[in-house]
From TrEMBL:
Transmembrane segments: none annotated. GO terms for molecular function: copper ion binding. GO terms for biological process: response to metal ion. InterPro entries: Ion_tolerance_CutA, N-reg_PII-like_a/b, N-reg_PII/ATP_PRibTrfase_C. Belongs to the CutA family. It holds the Pfam family CutA1. It comes from Amycolatopsis thermoflava. This is Uncharacterized protein involved in tolerance to divalent cations.
Length: 107
């Protein structure tokens, strides 16, 4: 996995998304997080198709923080099977990526 990663998840409310984002940043498992929403998610669950509003949380982090970040999201999430996807960052501003690493290290 690349050094810099975006971990994304979706939640059923803006307040839940804010809480997940804050916990990740406070624990230094992510340097920052953006919340996007509401979005409409269409999915199959228990054999039925659903369409529900959700909020996406995108957390910028580093590869060695992905596993503990995934665990934090699983522990705090209110979904039985939360969406958690890690996407490598292929490039970007060197200064921003350096800041991202610095912010995920103990202060």
């Amino acid at each position: 996995m690349r050094e810099h990663v975006i971990v994304s998840s979706t939640t059923d409310s803006e307040s839940t998304a804010r809480e997940l984002a804050a916990q990740a940043v406070e624990a230094r498992l992510g340097a920052c997080a953006q919340i996007v929403g509401p979005i409409l998610s269409v999915y199959r669950w228990d054999g039925e198709v659903h369409a529900d509003p959700e909020w996406r949380v995108e957390i910028k982090t580093v590869a060695d923080r992905v596993a503990p970040l995934v665990e934090l999201i699983k522990e705090q999430h209110n979904y039985e099977v939360p969406e958690i996807i890690a996407t490598p960052i292929e490039g970007g501003s060197a200064e921003y990526l350096e800041w991202l690493v610095k912010e995920t290290r103990a202060g």
